[in-house]
Amino acid sequence: MLFYPDEKLAIFIDGSNLFATAKSLNFDIDYGRLRRYFAKSSRLLRVNYYTALIEDADYSPLRPLVDWLDYNGFTMITKPTKEFTDDRGEKKIKGNMDMELAIDMMGMADHVDHMVLFSGDGDFRRLVEALQRKGVRVTVVSSTKTQPSMIADELRRQADSFIEISNMHEEFSRVAASDAAGHP
């Protein structure tokens, strides 16, 4: 990985995509360690985390994580999920944050040198291309080690660099000491 100490860096995390990737790999992410890893490698300006939340739920399993991230230097971008009934009459929940993430990345393009996108969603290929045309280097973090692969081939090819998250276990994973300290 190529990060420069003087480059301005912003991180964008597609929460649901990262959660699915980490779960497939049995990888328990320590978000505090993740943030510190990038902060020591560059001038980290912002870490945005995108997720949809179920409104009116008595308990959301995401709420403790969202609260911890919000209090520990992450910018939380959330919106309520939408409930709908599909063609078969089954209730489904939808909470796509792709548009919010794309708008924020384009908005930051003139202020950073390098962006890190935690997602494997192929819909972001054109976004990465547009950011590169503006002179921004883009690193994508996801996994090819899952079955099926969590990263779309076209996104991986478009990125300036790709980080296989399973290779970042020592840098990003929870360890017993951080669990005791209360870090998600």
Structure commentary:
The protein has 184 residues and is an alpha/beta fold. The protein has a single domain, classed as 5'-nuclease (Rossmann fold), CATH 3.40.50.1010. It contains eight helices and eight strands. It has a six-stranded parallel beta sheet, with helices on both faces. The chain has a two-stranded antiparallel sheet with strand order 4-5. A hairpin with a 5-residue loop joins strand 4 and strand 5. It is globular and about 50 Å long. About 3% of the residues have low confidence.
Taking the sheet with the most strands, its summary is: 6 strands, parallel
Overall helicity: 25-40%
Helical stretch tally: 8
The value of Rg in angstroms is 16 Å
| Structural class estimated from helices and strands | alpha/beta
The CATH topology is Rossmann fold
Termini gap:
25 Å
Whole-number tally of structural domains: 1
Characteristics of this structure?
alpha/beta; 8 strands; Rossmann fold; globular; two-stranded antiparallel sheet
Please sum up the structure shown.
This protein is of the alpha/beta class and 184 residues long. 36% of the residues lie in helices and 26% in strands. The longest helix has 11 residues.
Write the layout of secondary structure elements.
Layout lengths: L7 E7 H10 L6 H11 L1 E11 L9 H9 L3 E6 L1 E4 L5 E4 L3 H11 L5 E5 L6 H9 L3 E6 L10 H6 L2 E4 L4 H4 L3 H6 L3
Parallel strand pairs: 1-2, 1-6, 2-3, 6-7, 7-8
Antiparallel strand pairs: 4-5
